[in-house]
Specification:
- The chain has no helices and 11 strands.
- The protein is mainly beta.
- Strands 2, 4, 5, 6, 9, 10 and 11 form a 7-stranded mixed beta sheet that branches.
């Protein structure tokens, strides 16, 4: 199992920016490192289903963005630091949610059900 820890959440005014970090530690029983894992950022607001925001491949070459965040959020990774980032700009009140990162070994997926390693989540609150 890979352990994931999110950080960087908080309270921000509409139009502001935040950068979330997802730091990974540990190896799987097969000895794989974080650089072999695809990583996704998801969020869940009260009363709503968990939704995918952005996903990045293990190499960082391929990315995916949900329409709701395209052009505002940017996902990136630094495998040397075992960290994936989500830069969030032009934040809106509707972006308020708990944000999670998740990792899966192999090719990336936009389905949260495909991920078996999850962080504890970090709260993002955007005030109007």
């Amino acid at each position: 199992q890979v352990q994931l820890v999110e950080s960087g959440g908080g309270l921000v005014q509409a139009g502001g920016s935040l950068r979330l970090s997802c730091a990974a530690s540990g190896r799987t029983s097969s000895g794989r490192t974080f650089s072999t894992y695809a990583v996704g950022w998801f969020r869940q607001a009260p009363g709503k289903e968990r939704e995918v925001l952005a996903v990045i491949s293990s190499s960082g070459i391929s990315t995916y963005y949900a329409d709701s965040v395209k052009g505002r959020f940017t996902i990136s990774r630094d495998n040397a630091k075992n960290t994936v980032y989500l830069q969030m700009n032009s934040l809106k009140p509707e972006d308020t949610a708990v944000y999670y990162c998740a990792a899966r070994n192999g090719y990336y997926s936009t389905s949260h059900q495909a991920y078996n390693n999850w962080g504890q989540g970090t709260q993002v609150t955007v005030s109007s």
